[in-house]
Amino acid sequence: MIKNEINNLNILASELIAKSIIDMYPNAKLGEKSLTEIGFRYSFKLPNNIKLSANDFNKIKKIIKKNIDRNLAIKFENISKKKALEIFKSNAYKKYQINHLKSNNVSIIKIGNDFIDICDQLGLNKFPSIDFIELVNISGQYFDNNSKNEQLIAIEGWARKNKKEFDEYKEYLHKKNERDHRKIGANLELFCFDERVGQGLPIWLENGTNIKFQIEDYCRKLLQRNEYKFVQTPVLGTTQLYKISGHWDHYRENMFTELKVDNEEFVLKPMNCPHHIVTYQQKPHSYRELPFRIAEFGIQHRYEASGALTGLERVRQMQLVDTHTILMSSQINQEIKKIYSIINEAHKTLGTSIYSVELSLRDPKNKEKFFDDDKMWNSAENQLRNALKTLKVPFKEVIGEAAFYGPKIDMQIKTVLGHIITISTIQLDFLLPNRFKLEYIDQNGKKATPVFIHAGIIGTFERYLSILLEQTKGVLPLWLSPIQVMLIPVNDSYNDATHKIKLQLLKEDIRVKIDDTDERLSKKIREAQIKKIPYQVVIGEKEIKSKSVTYRQYGKSNETSVSLNDFIKLLKNQIKLMK
Questions:
Q1: pLDDT of residue 3
Q2: Helix or strand or coil: residue 344?
């Protein structure tokens, strides 16, 4: 089925559920329906004291089946707003939706003789079979996604037109669910969001922070080996800074509202490049210093619509593994090859794979979005195109996806939700050096203007972790695992001895926890497996007497006993090999 057919089928299925809810509870009020990542959602205001849960799905399905068996007629009509407001005069939610329609006409659906709802023309006149509708979740939802509004009950589900497509989609959702970074992140206690902090503002919990620290440490060493100089710049910048760079004119809609303090206007930093240019300009530079490479784990803030926020994949605060290189034109080809090699090494070591590579070009007809300088654009685009050809990298050219200041190489990853997102970038920029009057002293002792390369090595830590979790199902290599060893005392009498072992492991930089809960030993081991902890170590009388440990690896059932010293050597050797 094509996407439009699937969407229409899901909308009709949601209308069928809406009718069935009204049949069950005649005083219920219809809220709002929407398409979701997997299917549909419909919200309702139920009569007082009526509660629904997933346990009621079978009851709802029985009512749906009755309505299907009745072979009720389905009819679509276009009516005036005035007539629609009269029909839905007792439903404040529908009146709100009608009043916010841009059209003067309202499309409605009639099912049988007693059900009417706002609904676009679907081109369908038959209900999907109950066998091909799946109900998957029930939750609270604020009307119009506004926490100041009343909370309604929302039912989520999906539909397909036949058994083959139903079974295929169900299997796809099962695999997707296994790899959904939001579910994995919650299960492994890596990160969370809280409306009191703000939408799209992730909180890194202890386990997630441990992973982030390891990635930071690896990226720092990788970049320092390649002669990058690390700096740290503020999370704010003046509006004047971004007016000079051009972001104020070309990127304003993605920036947060300015803050006025004393006689200055600031914005939360949406990118690091203007700050890095300022660090370069603190003293004169010779051609002998070029390429001049700058790196930062820079915190950035970008405005994203609330509907676009997706776990860690799309957020409003992010921390980018960001680099900028200032160089001579003659060094461009070699430097791009170097950066591409660094990016590949990072993905190989961290365990992620690139789906595709795009060369993002300007749209020459769009003079507002892209800086108007044909000569500059033609030169920059050819430079990147030739570099990719030299590297023998398969790529496709995409018109209109360049940054406003220059073309870029976008390395893409396909997510479990089917999104194609950019994870690493190399951007060639002739514009910012001119706007900021960047210069260096050339071989002849004269001032010259350099070129600027922006490169995101693995993108942001937030987006990168979402990809890493999806591609690994949360089974991380030992060196990246937030908890590398779980110590499990057989009973409380071994807690003190277990704590001493923990201290020894901590001294060796092994990340370790103790499960000293009152649960059965088998449940503790199973819980450590669920948490995907690489090593579970049981401590009992045998281990204390022999000064040994008995360990089990994630995903395996066999146990091995070794001395504590040998166990530490085993862990450190594995970590060394993996890095």
A1: 65
A2: helix
Query: CA-to-CA distance for 556 and 536, rounded, in angstroms?
Result: 10
With pLDDT > 90 as the criterion, what percentage of the chain qualifies? Answer: 64
Task: Tell me how far apart the 2 most distant CA atoms of the chain are, in Å.
Answer: 90
CA 324: distance to chain centroid? 24
List the structure tokens of 457: 């090595």
Residue 308: band (very low, low, confident or very high) from pLDDT cuts 50, 70, 90: confident
pLDDT tens per residue, range 465-482:
999 999 899 999 999 999
Q: What pLDDT does residue 90 have?
A: 93
The kind and range of the H/E element at 453 are: strand 451-460
**pLDDT of 1 over the 90 cut:** no
What is the secondary structure of 130-142 as a DSSP string?
GGGEEEEEEEEEE
pTM above 0.70, yes or no: yes
Q: What's the CA gap between 28 and 393, in Å, rounded? A: 59
**Contact at 8 Å (CB) between 432 and 452?**
yes
The stretch 276-300 carries a mean pLDDT of 97
* 213 CB-near residues (< 8 Å, 6+ apart): none
* pLDDT digits 0-9 by tens, 210-255: 999 999 999 999 999 999 999 999 999 999 999 999 889 888 888 9
User: Which of 472, 481, 479 is closest to 577 using CA atoms?
Assistant: 479
What tens digit of pLDDT does each residue of 363-391 get?
877 766 676 777 878 888 888 898 888 88
Burial class of residue 7 (count of CB atoms within 10 Å of its CB; 0-12, 13-18, 19+): middle
Other C-beta atoms within 10 Å of 258: how many? 16
List Cβ neighbours of 257 (8 Å cut-off, separation of 6 or more): 267
**Could you give the count of Cα atoms lying within 13 Å of 557 in the half-sphere of its Cβ?**
0
d(CA 312, CA 310): 6
How many of the other CB atoms lie within 10 Å of CB of 59?
12
Quickly list DSSP for 195-220.
TTT-TT--EE-HHHHHHHHHHHHHHH
401: Cα within 13 Å, side-chain hemisphere: 15
Q: % helix / strand / coil in the chain, to the nearest 5?
A: 40, 25, 30
CA distance 331 to 510: 43
Nearest-angstrom CA–CA distance, 293 and 134: 54
What tokens does 205 get? 């919990």
Q: Do residues 413 and 351 make contact, with C-beta atoms less than 8 angstroms apart?
A: no
